[in-house]
Amino acid sequence: MKKISFVVSNLGGGGTQRVTTALANEFFKNGYIVDVLVCYSGLEKKFNVAEGVNIIDVRFEEKKSKYLIGRCFDYIKNLIRLRQAITKSKPTIIIAQQFEQCIRVPLSLLFYKKKLICCEHSEYGRLTGFTRAFVNLYYKFLVRNLVVLTQEDKYSYPSYLNNIQVIGNPLCVEASSVKAVPKRLGGNVILSVGRLSKEKGFYEYICFIVDNKSIFKNWNVNIVGSGSESDRLHELIKSSGIGDIVTITPFSENIELFYRSADIYYLPSIKEGFGLVLLEAMEYGLPIISNNSSKGARALIINDFNGLMVSDTKEMINAFSSLMKSNKKRQELSLNATLFVKNYYIDNVIKDWEKLFINYRKSWF
Questions:
Q1: 3-170+345-364, what's its fold?
Q2: What is the pLDDT of residues 324-352, one digit of tens each?
């Protein structure tokens, strides 16, 4: 029987952790033996892990020396711990999740033959200068199989990297619990879900609302999330006097109620590697507005089919106004969204992973 070992930084929350948990559970359901090797805080699990999926705490040391030689020594010790954990796990296939693990795992397995797939969850565009040149060479010579989330990201890498496959993230909500074009429980609600950090664009979104309060008349904006920008965003809402329009709610595992109570979904991120929240919004039948600068959004949204893409403030105003005024338009985008999202149901994504396994079966099994 084939055994898969995922390597992830932690299971304390976040998109990568949610995807890792969903894939691990589904592979186990399909008859694989599954270990999840957690580098930090292995006992902290925010998402449900199926009984039978083994969580292994690699126990990385988090103490950081003030000196370079000390930090290098600590890094090497953690690599040895990871190598020992992988060796003990005895997997057929290793899947390293996210950039840090894509660097760590190949180093930890030097001169030790293991079948490795590295999965990048961030845009290639985040890399610049020396870091980009280093990563390109690293992935060329030390990573046999690299998985990225979108076709656009694949073609952002240099052409000499011919080891890249595209497999999108799976929808992580239970499809069976959601009906096509679900009945809205509320009315006149615009929803956004995400980490409250600078790169997610919530500050700019609230500033847009402040400058265009008139178009939000009789509408409520609900932002669901937690993060470092929380206090700053609350202060902006209070000082701008838009508390009657905008509400920030801490992230809740009972996210379904927020999706079902909304009529429009807005993704404020300027850059987004792969929009899991977009898939969830589509599954719940929400028409979407998103910035065209986001690769993740461009991979999932077909403009004027399952959502609206905007490039500037004028287009943003037009998009919001259009969907606010036309229930017919919202229903049209909603229906198309629920049809499109089926491509990302987890059973379809698992098939893509298994095709990748089969392509290398001669050397692996």
A1: Rossmann fold (3.40.50)
A2: 999 999 999 999 999 999 999 999 999 99
